[in-house]
Design a protein that fits this description.
It contains 20 helices and 13 strands. By secondary structure, the protein is α/β, with parallel strands linked by helices. The chain is globular. One of its GO terms (cellular component) is cytoplasm.
């Protein structure tokens, strides 16, 4: 599928190639604000090949270039060739794309049906999900939707932290300090209390960590009591997690925790030893990675015989490769794990699994004003509390704005708006940046926020309903590009497929979010300046209704890629 905006870009480059006879680094740029052009081609890379200055080349191209139907004019500006779209043909093409594709407008065929495994969310069992778990969960879910929209076959895998040394900690604390009544009423809350208490006690008495390690070893060796309690912890945790995922409307194709790979680690270790990749070092089994520029070795097995998350992640990756045959595996995990994934990917290549694209989609931390969150230190904001507060604030807004709705309708709109606000507050920011948690910013219901975008959709749908709520069939009238507000909407709608491609390429959901905010601003300018249903002619009315329908479609689709719903009334 070649969309109109892409077709115009290709036509511009081909027109220059025909004249210049060279394809040395030709590229397209967006002219800065205030420049009366839609595309720009820098001529600097052509200077050496054509033995002329960029200014001379741009002037020559402007005089001689033959433009296709989507391009209207060419002008030289310094070392740039500036091009403008033929508004009527361009607008007709864009609106034809939107009408023809409907909710699939902006979809790509980049994936070609190839499989991509996306590892995201991955909370640790026996702890409540904090607001810090939000980032992996919703960034991963957005990347899942983006890949699906781009023609991939995504597989979402929630790699639960249900194994490892923390269970030695919990098993010791459970036997030492359990409040049985509290555990019966709120098992996850009591387990969190025990986890925090252990950390405090172990800082006073470090020998407790040795006892916790013994419990962990008993668990790995299959001790019946340890295994029974572990199963109980997992069961309680899964129920608590599912409540959060239901509110966020996040789904997974597989939920395979670290424990699923317990019986698969032996093969990894044996293979690494047999191939001479793993070596003994002070009783531990390690993989040295100095030859690929990583000074810290990967530890496969500790000196006491226990495995580590390195081992489990290797077993996990190999299982995914053999089971799903992916072209890519994405790990949506915080930036503080960068070294771990460098070690993991390098070791997988040493083991012969080098024909897959491994990607660590890293992100910054959500921090409290007083510093980094720490569950073991009890310094944490729980995600369920944030979601509940968001829905409560949205419910008050719905009561004020839509008192005529039924109680179930108010609850549903409050859920869509409140949860959307939480997601957008995160996804609208570049994932690599740290975020300082702020209740008001996280729960914003105005300004650059999901409710503002949702309201844009609701307003557009309101116009369409008032006009009969049916597609405005017929050609797009070029007159409907005559005002700055109309043309801004045409350009914005035409750019949506480019935005999807950019977000996919960089694994940046914020690119979509920022685009939608700009689209909403353009629409509100249009709404205030341009009559739609009272247009001067039937053709103009029809074309402006098409613009409004295009905004509603793209807003719904774009927010859907971010996992944000849209209400019909608000």
């Amino acid at each position: 599928m070649v969309y109109t905006y892409e077709a115009a870009k290709r036509a511009a480059l081909e027109a220059v190639r025909r004249i210049a006879g060279a394809d040395v680094g030709l590229s397209l740029a967006t002219p800065p604000a205030g420049v009366p052009a839609d595309l720009a081609i820098p001529c600097f890379p052509l200077a050496a090949a054509l033995h002329a200055s960029p200014q001379e080349i741009a002037a020559r191209l402007a005089r001689t270039v033959t433009l296709g139907p989507l391009l209207e004019s060419a002008q030289a500006s310094g070392g740039y060739l500036n091009l403008t779209f033929a508004r009527g043909a361009f607008a007709a093409g864009v609106m034809g794309d939107v009408h023809r594709m409907g909710d699939r407008y902006g979809a790509l065929d980049a994936g070609g049906g190839r499989t991509v495994v996306i590892d995201f969310s991955a909370p640790n069992v026996a702890r409540q999900m904090s607001v810090g778990h939000l980032r992996s969960t919703i960034i991963g879910a957005a990347l899942y939707e983006l890949h699906k929209f781009a023609g991939y076959q995504p597989i979402g895998d929630n790699h639960l932290g249900d194994w490892g040394t923390q269970f030695g900690t919990l098993l010791y604390a459970y036997h030492a300090w359990l409040d049985r009544e509290a555990y019966a009423q709120d098992p996850i809350g009591e387990l969190l209390r025990l986890y925090v208490k252990f950390d405090a006690e172990a800082r006073r008495d470090p020998s407790l960590r040795d006892q916790a390690r013994q419990w962990h070893l008993r668990l790995e060796q299959g001790d019946p009591d340890a295994r029974a309690l572990w199963h109980e912890f997992v069961r309680h945790s899964l129920a608590a997690f599912q409540k959060i995922y239901d509110l966020l409307e996040v789904r997974f194709d597989h939920t395979l925790g670290e424990s699923f790979y317990e019986d698969k680690m032996g093969e990894v270790i044996e293979t690494a030893v047999r191939r001479g990749i793993a070596v003994e070092d002070q009783g531990a089994l390690i993989v040295r990675l100095d030859d690929v520029g990583i000074k810290t070795p990967l530890i496969l097995r500790r000196s006491d015989g226990a495995t580590l998350y390195h081992t489990r992640d290797l077993a996990t990756a190999i299982y995914r490769l053999r089971t799903f045959h992916p072209s890519k595996i994405l790990y949506v995990v915080g930036a503080d794990q960068r070294l771990h994934f460098q070690q993991l990917f390098a070791t997988l290549r040493k083991l012969g699994f080098g024909d897959v694209d491994y990607v660590h989609v890293d992100f910054g931390l959500i921090q409290l004003p007083e510093g980094r969150m720490s569950t073991r230190r009890g310094r944490v904001v729980f995600l369920e509390d944030v979601l509940d507060e968001a829905m409560a604030r949205a419910r008050r807004l719905v009561e004020e704005k839509n008192p005529e709705l039924s109680e179930p309708e108010k609850d549903e709109v409050a859920r869509i708006v409140g949860i959307g606000a939480i997601k957008y507050a995160d996804l609208s920011q570049n994932r690599v940046k740290n975020i300082v948690f702020d209740w008001d910013r996280m729960l914003a219901l105005d300004g650059d926020s999901a409710p503002y975008l949702q309201y844009t959709y609701v307003r557009a749908r309101g116009i369409l309903r008032k006009g009969g709520d049916r597609a405005a069939e017929g050609p797009f009238d070029p007159v409907a590009t005559g005002t700055p507000a109309e043309w801004a909407l045409v350009l914005a709608l035409g750019n949506f497929p480019e935005v999807v491609a950019e977000a996919l390429q960089g694994y940046y959901p914020h690119v979509v979010a920022n685009y939608l905010f700009a689209l909403a601003q353009a629409f509100h300018g249009f709404y205030h300046d341009v009559p739609v249903l009272q247009a001067d002619s039937a053709a103009l009315r029809r074309s402006r209704v098409q613009l409004v329908a295009g905004v509603a479609t793209v807003m719904r689709t774009g927010l859907g890629l971010l996992g944000i719903g849209v209400p019909e009334r608000m």
